[in-house]
Amino acid sequence: MTHLVIAPIIIPLLAGALMMLPGERWRTLRTGLGLAATAALVVVAGLLLLRADAAGAAEVQLYRLGNWPSSFGIVLVLDRLSALMLVLASVLGLAAHVFALARWDRAGAHFHPLFQFQLMGLNGAFLTGDLFNLFVFFEVMLAASYGLALHGSGTARVRAGLHYIAINLAASLVFLVGVSVIYGVAGTLNMADLAARMHDIAAEDRALLETGCAILGVAFLIKAAMWPVGFWLPGTYGAASAPAAAILSLLSKVGIYAVLRLWLLLFGDGAGASAGFGGMWLMLGGLATIAFGSLAVLATQNMARLAGACVIVSSGTLLAALGAGQVAVTGGALFYMTSSVLAIGALFLLIELIERGREVGADVLAVTREAFGEGAEEEYLDDDEEIGVAIPAIMALLGLGFMACALLLAGLPPLSGFLAKFAILAPLIGTGDDGLPATTWAVLAALILSGLACLIAMTRVGMDAFWAAPGPPPRVAMVEILPVAGLLALCLGLTLMAGPVMRYMHDTAAGLHAPAGYVSGVMRP
Amino acid sequence: MELVVAIGIGVLTGSGVWLLLRPRTFQVIMGLSLLSYAVNLFIFSTGGLRTGAAPVLEPGGVGDLATHADPLPQALVLTAIVISFATTALFLVVLLAARGLTGTDHVDGREHDR
């Protein structure tokens, strides 16, 4: 059963490769294979999560490819954080996949193989234990995401995709520069080995190594869409097809994952003079990202772009929380990440269903009308006649889903979004017995104000979509509403099971903040 | 030797960044290519530069770790070349699609008034 660790990479790889053989004509076969692979991934990820949780606090599961010693060979490392990310990726993948079955998988060529390779890249990035394979899996993931972002074609997608690809190609080059500087100084690319060597880096080389890590960090933060390198995000995600956008929203969390993993590993307490390097930048960058994201949330006139802006806010919140560098805050941030990944995924899927029933450009008109106060009177008169018309059931369902997303993203009770923000803020405030530092106040204000901005924007858009001028209700297939309901039900589950989940998150955070266990686990002979 | 390599990388990077910031898609793809050459050279140079050394073994000598070049940067640079080649090809396709759909080679898909 030790080989189960590599299954999240092998399953989508094999499934994707097999699907390429029969070609587009054998659609049922491809669909069945894809669905089976995605479902198998959920099961495998669940099993791995249980296994990671059953292990001791500082224990990691190591998988050596070809049984080479860790310092020479390629290793896969499973700890609580990677298991959590695997589960998130597979669950969101399953939801997006089922959603796509209704219509999107036929909107262009090779949706299923691309989707499998996307999942393979994601899982590989979560499992790999060395920097260069992280690069390789990033590229696998990005190459598939280019295809998915363009899926369905059309001028808007191609235009946004062009920017997305150019930025990510440049970011990959930055990634490579960072990796090679680190190799040149430290002489290793294995993350655990690197962490072990951090302490003994010569003083004159330390600045160079820190530069390399900072360059690497920039590459991750471009993926995570930190201000000012995140302007590409709303356009790309807004233009992508719904299932693709849902899975792309996870890609920005991969950037967060890499920062979380590497920053805590390399610049923990064992790093000697480099301990805590860049923490302030993460915090300030996170705050700037929240501010930019909140403005974008308020300013946007289009639902899909709104969801993109929510991704930015969520990235900023995570970065700011990470920058605090406290175990309990990191635990809260992990809970927040879980909740927001599910909520944003559901929102992207939901938006497509809602927009289906509306004429193009309705959003723009509505916001402009609101701003200039025109036509309000006429509408009032029209509304009188419509009183008593029952809202069709599907609109009610969609409305409920949208409301749940709004509550989750704004961080209002009773759903898990509130618990997540509370879990970040409570330990931050709790530690300051003798007055809180300015940064804590800033994070506090940023989290609460960004929630307010989210709430205002979502309410405005929601009123517009569900209460004003509904038109004929959209035709929605069962397989489209099910994934959304499933994702939201998981958020509900997070709320109800908050105790055990928080316990898991705190164990994860404790493991991340004490990297010695990770290092000795990977480097054991 | 170091100076020549450093200047070469610098010139490639400078030209690459300048082209990357230009408004035409063709210039952007050329810029990305130049940048990837610069990065490949940079990775290669992290293994250390030596002049006049034998490629693998000294004639008549036996293998000695001290005289070998570090193989890892070479492996890295091969992977990086393959990946950047593939992604550049993919970008080229998107570029052509954008040209066909929007009728212009401007990166924003429309001409800006000067």
UniProtKB/TrEMBL annotation, chain A:
User: What organism is recorded for this protein?
Assistant: Roseococcus suduntuyensis
Q: Tell me the membrane topology, using the record's own terms.
A: Multi-pass membrane protein
Transmembrane feature ranges: 6-21, 33-52, 72-101, 122-144, 164-186, 207-225, 281-299, 306-327, 333-351, 387-409, 439-461, 481-499
Tell me the protein family, please.
Answer: Belongs to the CPA3 antiporters (TC 2.A.63) subunit D family.
Mostly located where? membrane
- What's a Pfam family in this record? Proton_antipo_M
GO CC terms: plasma membrane
Q: Which domain of life is it from?
A: Bacteria
The identity of this protein, by name, is: Multicomponent K+:H+ antiporter subunit D
Instruction: Give the matching NCBIfam families.
Output: PRK12666.1
Residues forming the NADH:quinone oxidoreductase/Mrp antiporter transmembrane domain are 129-429
TrEMBL record, chain B:
Which cellular component terms (GO) are annotated to the entry? plasma membrane
Q: Which family does it belong to?
A: Belongs to the CPA3 antiporters (TC 2.A.63) subunit C family.
Looking up InterPro entries in the UniProt record yields: CPA3_antiporter_subunitC (IPR050601), NUOK/Mnh_C1-like (IPR039428)
TM ranges: 6-21, 28-49, 75-98
**Protein name, entry field:** Multicomponent K+:H+ antiporter subunit C
Where is this gene product found? Cell membrane
Domain of life of the organism encoding this protein? Bacteria
Q: Which UniProt keywords apply?
A: Cell membrane, Membrane, Transmembrane, Transmembrane helix
The main place the protein resides is membrane
Record membrane topology: Multi-pass membrane protein
